[in-house]
Write the structure tokens for this entry.
Amino acid sequence: MKRRQALHALAGLGAGLLIGPVRSAQSLLPAAKTGRVVVVGGGWGGLSAAAHLRRALPAWDVVLVERQARFFSLPLSNAWLIDRVPGATLDHNYRQAAARHGYTFIQAEVRGIDRASRRIETDNGHLGYDWLVLSPGIAESLAPWVEGDPAALGAIRDRFDGAFVGPAGVRQLKQRLHAFAGGDWVMTVPPAPYRCPPTPYERAVAIASWWRERQIKGRLIVLDPGAGMAGYRDTFHRQFSDLIEFKPFVRIERVDPFKKVIHTDFDEIPFAEATLAGPQQAGALVAMAGLERRREQNEATGWADVDARTLQSQADERVFVIGDAVGLVSPLFGHYPKTGHMAVHHGRIAAAGIAARVQGKPFEPPFPDSTCWVYDSYTPPEMVRIDASYRIRGDGAMEQTIDQARENQPRGEEMAWAEGMFGEMFGTIK
């Protein structure tokens, strides 16, 4: 924790400072003949940006840097937890995507960003860039729950991961769910903003459905810092009153992962199992590069400060930040929805903006949009489609419109949507 705090402190000292390890003498690639765009992060947004950059700048080097060897989709993973979606649908090969689109894939972990020199440092060497797209996803802030105790923090991540940050947590959750024999299972809902707001509620329905089908005597205790989503509260009451206990307006003060007890502002809640998702913020690279949005008195928000339309960093015109890491974009609604669909649109916008600047062309960024398919019942299958769209009002503020539609007899619409998204990201459709 001390090293992380030091990195956050150093990030504010200036763009010319390298945040991370000593400079590496090894270059990951030869110098670019024309120019180079580096995309860091191989989630939905990063994959979209790399694919669209390759098409928009055919003479340039386009490089995707990602620390994982393979991609695994978090959207649709709740259905995967209970064997409603095959793993092959969510698991994809980065190198095949790079080969299909024609960009370069490098598996490495970024350890430092020198914006003055336009250079990133990884665990395998350094790489220069002319333009940089950061798609670092999210990180969780769990330390306050354990008063900074590294052993307790490690125990939460190793045994009770919230399954929001990456594929390892989702895979761990599936193993724990399939091995669960009964008892009290506590699930925490993060405070807003967080990745894909329907996720914890859809996951609660998935877990309860799994228990009911297998006649497992469990109780899922959902601790929510707010009021929850009205539609899901109704589902919990109508369909799962014997399996789900929903507790709104709960503030978690402390977690003891060794004694398996959660201390709230009202009581103590023991548990046999838990899915502990804490407050979220942008992935560490945003703070590492000094790109955080700050409040008055220079207090960091934890999220990236970007132009709401272009997604260009307010601190560096050569850097774009996309996807879930993006911070406040409007005083009317706050953040864009942190969804895979939104991240793909961010990738398109950043790619088009960089290409326009390289080519010296004017650029009017399109508005992003978001579509999210979520289950509110698995037996029988019932889904809700949530759409978000945007416009600029007469007073210059960005306005968000949310539309919801029920699909009580779905015919695979969510899979058709996912196949379209994956096809764009991995080059399996034109």
Remarks:
- Confidence is low (pLDDT under 50) at residues 1-21.
- Residues 370-418 form one domain.
